[in-house]
């Protein structure tokens, strides 16, 4: 892992990276390593593997291990590698966490259990089992739009009992609430590209992006400008990236689908394969994506 002596422990610019697949649906480890290298070559301090954008609900424990190993081999000597271990089965998440620790992940991304919608006691129990199963630093992930459950402030307070729980990826978008979470001692990362600049203005340490697949250098530059006090330059970059943000994140069929189509347009991948229930972007959707990237001067 790269040591960020003058900044946050995980760095400031991270992306929840896509997982490449062959035409037969199997994991393309070489393609996945190319994605990681592309990101780190273009402004990234770190990557998050096997998150939602990595299509983790469709990959097996063994595949997650292979993906993590491939990414660590590709970029682990020059970037932070965070392993997504969040599922809606606690024992499954514990297994993934222990595997990630064994393989050398720098941190874990732990989302609230989705679909089964536990109460806060269940959320804390889930966190406890996963956190106490390893000694690896943990970034909690709060994304109620996908999970149906929001982490309560009281649960954040209770989770501070574990020294390894150090950060939050926030996709709630409530800035005042986020400031309260940071006041508890958490490093907060924006989990919504449209909110990146707003979160920086409210004290966030950095971002976990999706648009970073296509705009890593630009978002990293925006962060540097903001941290350096050149807020006008940061705002100018944010404004320039709005068409790309809308094209990647503002359509119904977004996330892994648009990230992979970006990578195909940029020549990093030779396909945009995804696993069901996702379907690849249609030609019309790719054309709209290309238009948004071009409007932001990314292609």
From TrEMBL:
What GO molecular-function term can you cite, just one? 4-hydroxy-tetrahydrodipicolinate synthase activity
Q: Where is this site: Part of a proton relay during catalysis?
A: 52, 115
Pfam families this protein is in? DHDPS (PF00701)
First and last residue of the signal peptide: none
Record function comment: Catalyzes the condensation of (S)-aspartate-beta-semialdehyde [(S)-ASA] and pyruvate to 4-hydroxy-tetrahydrodipicolinate (HTPA).
Quote the NCBIfam families the UniProt record gives.
Answer: dapA
Which family is this protein grouped under?
Belongs to the DapA family.
Question: Protein name, please?
Answer: 4-hydroxy-tetrahydrodipicolinate synthase
Q: Which organism is it from?
A: Nocardioides agariphilus
Q: Which gene encodes it?
A: dapA
């Amino acid at each position: 892992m790269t040591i960020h002596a003058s900044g946050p422990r995980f760095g400031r610019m991270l992306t929840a990276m896509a997982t490449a697949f062959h035409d037969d649906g199997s994991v393309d480890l070489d393609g996945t390593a190319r994605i990681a290298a592309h990101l780190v070559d273009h402004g990234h301090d770190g990557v998050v593997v096997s998150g939602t954008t990595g299509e983790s609900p469709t990959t097996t424990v063994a595949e997650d291990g292979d993906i993590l190993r491939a990414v660590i081999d590709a970029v682990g000597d020059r970037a932070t590698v965070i392993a997504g271990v969040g599922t809606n089965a606690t024992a499954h998440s514990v297994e993934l966490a222990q595997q990630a620790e064994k393989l050398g992940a720098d941190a874990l991304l732990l989302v609230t259990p989705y679909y089964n919608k536990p109460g806060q006691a269940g959320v804390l129990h889930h966190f406890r089992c996963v956190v106490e199963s390893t000694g690896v630093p943990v970034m909690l992930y709060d994304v109620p739009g996908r999970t149906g459950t929001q982490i309560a402030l009281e649960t954040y307070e209770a989770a501070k009992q574990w020294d390894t729980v150090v950060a939050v990826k926030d996709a709630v978008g409530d800035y005042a609430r986020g400031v309260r979470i940071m006041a508890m001692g958490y490093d907060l990362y924006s989990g919504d590209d449209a909110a990146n600049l707003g979160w920086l203005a409210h004290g966030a340490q950095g971002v976990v992006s999706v648009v970073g697949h296509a705009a890593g250098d630009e978002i990293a530059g925006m962060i540097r400008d903001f941290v350096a006090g050149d807020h006008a330059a940061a705002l100018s970059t944010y404004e320039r990236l709005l068409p790309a943000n809308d094209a990647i994140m503002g359509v119904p069929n977004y996330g892994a689908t648009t990230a992979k189509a970006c990578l195909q347009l940029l020549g990093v991948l030779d396909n945009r394969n995804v696993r069901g229930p996702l379907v690849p972007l249609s030609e019309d959707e790719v054309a709209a994506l290309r238009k948004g990237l071009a409007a932001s001067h990314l292609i």
